[in-house]
């Protein structure tokens, strides 16, 4: 969905938003090797509280869930998105 990517890039800048496969795959799992990888549709890296608020507004507008991520060292899959699918099922990985 090009309008989502554009909105995110406008809010954060192109260096802090990606939908590229080689980037999203890096966020597809934590250290949980038993669980299958599931890359997010977008990876966003906000630097301020205001940027986080703007990401939440964009996610709300497009009805896209947000999956927060810390260091990705979770063994239970808590740091990765669960579902993948149609545009209404897109997720942001908030890093």
Task: Explain how this protein is built.
By secondary structure, the chain is of the alpha/beta class. The chain has one domain (2-94): 2-Layer Sandwich (Uridine Diphospho-n-acetylenolpyruvylglucosamine Reductase, domain 2). 31% of the residues lie in helices and 12% in strands. It has 3 helices and 4 strands. It has helices at residues 2-12, 21-24, 49-62; strands spanning 17-18, 42-44, 66-68, 92-94. Strands 1-2-4-3 form a 4-stranded mixed beta sheet. Helix 1 packs antiparallel against helix 3 (49-62). The radius of gyration is 13 Å and the shape is globular. The chain starts with a helix and ends with a strand. Mean pLDDT is 76; it is low at 85-90.
Low-confidence stretches: 85-90
Largest sheet, described in full?
Answer: 4 strands, mixed
Provide the CATH topology.
Uridine Diphospho-n-acetylenolpyruvylglucosamine Reductase, domain 2
Strand content: 5-15%
Query: Order of strands in the sheet with the most strands?
Result: 1-2-4-3
Name of the CATH superfamily: Uridine Diphospho-n-acetylenolpyruvylglucosamine Reductase, domain 2
Number of spatially distinct domains: 1
Tell me, rounded to a whole number, the average pLDDT. 76
Percent helix among the residues? 25-40%
The number of strands is: 4
Tell me the series of helices and strands, N- to C-terminal: HEHEHEE
Shape assignment: globular
Distance linking N and C termini: 21 Å
Structural class: alpha/beta
CATH class: Alpha Beta
Give the CATH architecture: 2-Layer Sandwich
Radius of gyration, in Å, reads 13 Å
**H/I helix tally:** 3
């Amino acid at each position: 969905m090009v309008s989502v990517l554009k909105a995110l890039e406008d809010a954060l800048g192109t260096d802090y938003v990606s939908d590229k496969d080689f980037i999203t795959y890096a966020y597809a799992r934590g250290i949980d090797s038993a669980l299958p990888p599931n890359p997010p549709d977008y990876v966003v890296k906000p630097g301020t509280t205001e940027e986080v608020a703007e990401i939440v507004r964009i996610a709300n507008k497009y009805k896209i869930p947000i999956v927060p991520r810390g260091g990705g060292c979770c063994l239970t899959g808590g740091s990765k998105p669960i579902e993948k699918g149609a545009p209404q099922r897109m997720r942001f990985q908030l890093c």
